[in-house]
Amino acid sequence: MKKKLTGTVTSSKRDKTLRVEVARRFRHQRYGKIVSGRTVCQVHDEENVANEGDLVEIEESRPLSKTKRWTLLQVLVATQSVQ
């Protein structure tokens, strides 16, 4: 079973590659306080569909390059691009 995560695209400047931040909240192990953290994933986007600010669903995959380990499944919420 492959992992699936939901995150926000923070950079789509590279060809077929996205930078996605996955936000998470967890309880601190010692102090018990709720802490927010983030995980940054490099995601393969074959058709260059997603843009910055989009909410996307990603899936774990085989290593595609030195840093890319995820592929884009779908764009959940697309943002309006201003030009």
TrEMBL record:
Entries under PROSITE patterns matching the protein: RIBOSOMAL_S17
Supply the InterPro entries for this chain. Answer: NA-bd_OB-fold, Ribosomal_uS17, Ribosomal_uS17_bact/chlr, Ribosomal_uS17_CS
GO biological process assignments: translation
On whether Isomerase is a keyword of this UniProt record, the answer is: no
Gene Ontology annotations for the cellular component aspect, listed alphabetically: cytosolic small ribosomal subunit
Matches recorded under Gene3D superfamilies: Nucleic acid-binding proteins (2.40.50.140)
Q: Which GO terms describe its molecular function?
A: rRNA binding; structural constituent of ribosome
Q: Which Pfam families match?
A: Ribosomal_S17
Name the keywords, alphabetized: Ribonucleoprotein, Ribosomal protein, RNA-binding, rRNA-binding
Domain of life the protein comes from: Bacteria
Its function, per the record, reads:
One of the primary rRNA binding proteins, it binds specifically to the 5'-end of 16S ribosomal RNA.
Subunit organization: Part of the 30S ribosomal subunit.
Similarity comment: family membership:
Belongs to the universal ribosomal protein uS17 family.
Xref: PANTHER family: 40S RIBOSOMAL PROTEIN S11 FAMILY MEMBER (PTHR10744), SMALL RIBOSOMAL SUBUNIT PROTEIN US17M (PTHR10744:SF1)
Q: What is this protein called?
A: Small ribosomal subunit protein uS17
Query: What species is given as this protein's source?
Result: Polystyrenella longa
